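Try this one yourself first.
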C-alpha cells in the first residue's frame, strides 16, 4: 500500500466540506485534476470508496464519514505539533472552534469571548450553537474543539467524552408579574404542579426540569413546550404559565417588554452542572486549554486540569 500523505487528507477534508472537486481545488489552490487524482489515490490506499460522485458534486459514503472524522483528528494533531514548536504562550495562534449550548451562548459566552480575544488576539475563534445532541455530534466529528454545555447522562456514560465542570446552575421559577404565586418569597413544586407549565424542551433541560417534580412524586401540567429560551420567557410574561429555568438574564422583561419575576424553588435543589466537554481520546490543543482556563477566570470558577 502506498503511503497516505497529510496533503491527501487535507484535500479530502476540503472536498467533503465543499461538496465538489471544483470548490475543493479553489480552496486548496490546486487544479481540479490534482485534487481528483489525490482523492482517487487516497481511496485506493484506504481500500474504500469515500465519495459518491454525481453531477451536482460529491456525497460522503458511510466509510467516508468515518474517515472524515479520523482525518480531522489527524490534521488537528499536526496543527498542535506546529503550535507545540512555539515556546512562548502569548504567541498562541491558529483556529479554535467552540461549541455552546444555545441558552448558555447569549448569557455566558460573550463575556468569555471578549476576555479571550483580548488575551489571545492571534487565535481565530469561531463559535457554533445548538442542542447537546448537535454539539456532541460536532465533538465526535471534530467539528469543534470543545463545547460549553450542561452535564447530561451521556457524558457520565460515554467513554469517549470528558466533562470539566465549571459551576452548578440552580433552578428557579419564572413568573409573570401578575401570577398569583409571584407574591411568595419561595415556591415549592407542589404549588407549581397544578399550574400550567411552559416547559423549556431542549435536552438536557427538559429531563432535568421534569425530574424535579418526579422526585416529589408529582407530574406537572405541561401546557406548552418550546425549544427557544426567549419563547419560553415571552409565553410566561403573557401569563400563559410558569417556567422552571437555570439561566438568569439580568433584564427582567420579555422581548415584547412585559415584566417577569423570578422566585427561588423550595427546597433548594442541586444545580445542573455547566462545564466544558471534549473528546477524551484527543489531546486538547493549547488553544483549547487556554480557552478553558479563560472560562474559569471569567466565570470565577475553579477547574481541574482540562488536559489531564
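Now uncover the answer:
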Amino acid at each position: 500500500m502506498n503511503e497516505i500523505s497529510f496533503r491527501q487528507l487535507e484535500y479530502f477534508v476540503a472536498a467533503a466540506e465543499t461538496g465538489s472537486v471544483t470548490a475543493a481545488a479553489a480552496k486548496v489552490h490546486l487544479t481540479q485534476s490534482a485534487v481528483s487524482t489525490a482523492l482517487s489515490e487516497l481511496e485506493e490506499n484506504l481500500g474504500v470508496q469515500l465519495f459518491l460522485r454525481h453531477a451536482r458534486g460529491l456525497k460522503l459514503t458511510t466509510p467516508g464519514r468515518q474517515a472524515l472524522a479520523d482525518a480531522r483528528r489527524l490534521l488537528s494533531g499536526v496543527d498542535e505539533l506546529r503550535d507545540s514548536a512555539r515556546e512562548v504562550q502569548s504567541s498562541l495562534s491558529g483556529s479554535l472552534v467552540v461549541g455552546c449550548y444555545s441558552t448558555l451562548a447569549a448569557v455566558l459566552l460573550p463575556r468569555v469571548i471578549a476576555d479571550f480575544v483580548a488575551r489571545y488576539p492571534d487565535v481565530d475563534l469561531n463559535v457554533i450553537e445548538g442542542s447537546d445532541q448537535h454539539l456532541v455530534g460536532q465533538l465526535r466529528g471534530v467539528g469543534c474543539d470543545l463545547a460549553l454545555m450542561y452535564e447530561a447522562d451521556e457524558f457520565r456514560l460515554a467513554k469517549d467524552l470528558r466533562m470539566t465542570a465549571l459551576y452548578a446552575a440552580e433552578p428557579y421559577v419564572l413568573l409573570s408579574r401578575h401570577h398569583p404565586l409571584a407574591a411568595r418569597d419561595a415556591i415549592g413544586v407542589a404549588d407549581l404542579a397544578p399550574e400550567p407549565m411552559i416547559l423549556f424542551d431542549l435536552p438536557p433541560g427538559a429531563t432535568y426540569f421534569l425530574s424535579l417534580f418526579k422526585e416529589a412524586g408529582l407530574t406537572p401540567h405541561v401546557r406548552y413546550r418550546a425549544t427557544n429560551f426567549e419563547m419560553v420567557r415571552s409565553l410566561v410574561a403573557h401569563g400563559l404559565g410558569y417556567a422552571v429555568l437555570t439561566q438568569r438574564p439580568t433584564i427582567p422583561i420579555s422581548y415584547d417588554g412585559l415584566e417577569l419575576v423570578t422566585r427561588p424553588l423550595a427546597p433548594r435543589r442541586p444545580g445542573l452542572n455547566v462545564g466544558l466537554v471534549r473528546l477524551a481520546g484527543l489531546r486538547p490543543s493549547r488553544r483549547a486549554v487556554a480557552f478553558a482556563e479563560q472560562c474559569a477566570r471569567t466565570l470565577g470558577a475553579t477547574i481541574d486540569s482540562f488536559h489531564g
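Discussion: Residues 166 and 303 are 6 Å apart (CA to CA). The two ends are 36 Å apart (CA to CA).
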